[in-house]
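Minutes, project check-in

Agenda point 3 was the complex the collaborators sent over. CS summarized: two entities, 591 residues total, and the question is how they sit relative to each other. Sequences were read into the notes so everyone works from the same version.
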Amino acid sequence: MAFLELEKLTKSFGSHNAVDGLTLGVEKGEFVALLGPSGCGKTTTLQMIAGFVEPTSGAIRLGGKDLLAMKPAKRGLGIVFQSYALFPHMTVAENVGFGLEMQGVAAAERRTRVGETLELVGLGAFTTRFPRQMSGGQQQRVALARALVIRPQVLLLDEPLSNLDAKLREGMQIELRQIQRTVGTTTILVTHDQAEAMALSDRIVVMNQGKAEQIGPPHEAYERPATPFVANFLGKTNLVNGATVRPERISFSTVGLAGTVRTRIFQGNHWLYQVETGSGLVTVIRQNTGEAMPGEGDGVHLAWEGRA
Amino acid sequence: MKAAPYLLCLPALVLFAGVVIVPLGMTVLLSFHDWGQYKGIEPVFILKNWQEVLGDSYFHEMFARTFRIAFFVTLLAAVFGAPEAYILNRMRSPWRGIFLLVILGPLLISVVARTLGWALLFGGNSGLVNKALMGMGLISAPLPFMFTETGIVIALAHVLMPYMVLAVWASLQRLDPQIENAAVALGAGPFTVLRRIVLPQVMPGILSGAVIVFALAASAFATPAIIGGRRLKVASTLAFDEFLNTLNWPLGAAVAMLLLAALVAIIWGTNRLVERRYAQVFA
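CS then shared the predicted structure for the full assembly.
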C-alpha cells in the first residue's frame, strides 16, 4: 500500500468533471509531478489533497488514514502556493515560524528550527526582512522554508517556479531537487511545464481532461508515450506515415526520406529545422557541433532508427 | 524654462484659490475682528475671540464633546464596518451586489432625512428602539436617546458607516485569497486566521476609513443638530448658531477655524503614523 493514495478521485463542477476518477499511489519520499495543460484538473487534485476543495467522490488516504475526514488545518501538509502567499505583515522569521507557533512549539525551539530551515534554503541572513523587500526568488525560498519547517508528511508545490524568470527557474529547479533529496519529504508538484516536471520528479502523471493519460518515470513517458496526447505534450513529435518520431532522433543522411529544408533556426546549442517531405512537414533538431549544416532550400535525406 | 505645464494648471489653480483659499483666508481674518451687540462687526485686529474660545470652559466642554462623539462614532463604525466589509467580500456574485447596494444606498438619501428617521425611532419613551429593547427584556426602563450624546453617536455611526465599509473593502480586495489558505494549511483556526492574518493586512484600510469617518463626524452638522437639539451643542452647530442666531460672525469664525485646525492636525498625525508603521510592509 502506497504512502499517499488517491482512489477514484472525482470532482464535478455541474456536469463537468474537473477531475475524473484519478487513482494514484505515491511512495514515501517520492517526488511526483502532476503535469498537464491548464484546465486538466491538476490544481483541483492538489487542492483536494490540501483540503481547500471537497471531492465529489473518491478517497484520499495518507499513511492508511482517511485524509478527507480531517480538516485542512489538521492535515499537516506543507504547501507552496503559486503566488507564494507569504504573510506581508510578518518578517521572514515570523512567516516561517507561524506553522510551528500554531503547533504550540516553544519559542526557543521555534527559533532554532526556523534558523535551520532558512539556512537550508540559503536565507540565513534574511530573518528580519519583510517579504516586500525581497526578490521573487527569495520569496519563493521563504515559502518553501515555511512549508518545510513544520516537517510535513507531504509537500505540495503548486506551480512554484512559474513566476520566476527562465534563468532563475533553472537554478531553483536544481536547488529544489537537492533540498527535497536532503529532507526526503514526499512531494507532489503541479506544473504545466514539461521540462520542469521531467527535471524534478521521480514519476510524472500526465493529465488531460481530468484523467491520467500516463503515470511513469519521466524518461519512460518521453520514450514510450502511452497516447498521442502524452507524446505531444512531452516535447515535440513528428507523425510520419503513422509512426511518431522525436525530432532529435532524426539525422541528415545520404539515404532515407527525401525533402527540402524550408526553414532553419539557430538556437545556440542546437539547430531547429522544418523539412518539407513527401509525408508532410518534419521537424528536425540537430546538436550544434560546429560542423557545417544544410541551409534553407537545400535538398536533404532524413533517417532515423527503425527506418532504413 | 517650460511654462506650459504651469500655464495648463493655472485655470484649476485659480478656481481652487477662488473657492477654497480666499474664503478660508477671509474666515481667518474674520476671526480676529471685533463684534458688539449694537456696533456689529468691526474690522480691527484683536485676539478677543481666540482668547474666549481657548479660555472659556464652555468652549472646552463643547470641543471635548465634539471629539468624544467623533471618537465613539469612529470606534462604532470600525467595529461594525470592518466585519461588514469582510462578510460582503466573501459573498457570492448576486448577493454581493445586492448587499453592497443595501450598504451604500443610504448615501443616496439626504442626511437630514436619515437623521429624522432616527429621531422617529428614538423619539420619547414610546420610541420604537426603546419598545424593542424593552420587549426583548434587555432594559427595564426606557433609555434616553434623543438629546443625548449616545443618540448622536448611534445616528452618526449609521450615517457614516458606508465610508468605513468602502475603505476596508478596498483593502480586502487587494488581499491574496491564497494567504488565508496558507495560514489554514499551517494549522490556523478560523479565528486565528482573522486575527493574525486578515486583520493586520486590512489595518491600513481601517485606519484610512477611520480618518474619513472621524473627520466627517467631527464636522457633522445635520445629525447633531436634529438629535442633539438646541442645547447639546458641538463645534459645527455652535459655529452655525454664532453666525445665524447671535450674528457674532467673528466668534463663529474662530470656532470654525479651531475645528479645522484640530482636524487637520489629527488627520495629518494619523497619516504619518500609518505611513511610518506600514511603509515597509505594504507598498
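Noted in discussion: Chain B touches chain A through 22 residues (CB under 8 Å).
Follow-up: revisit at the next meeting once the mutant set is ready.
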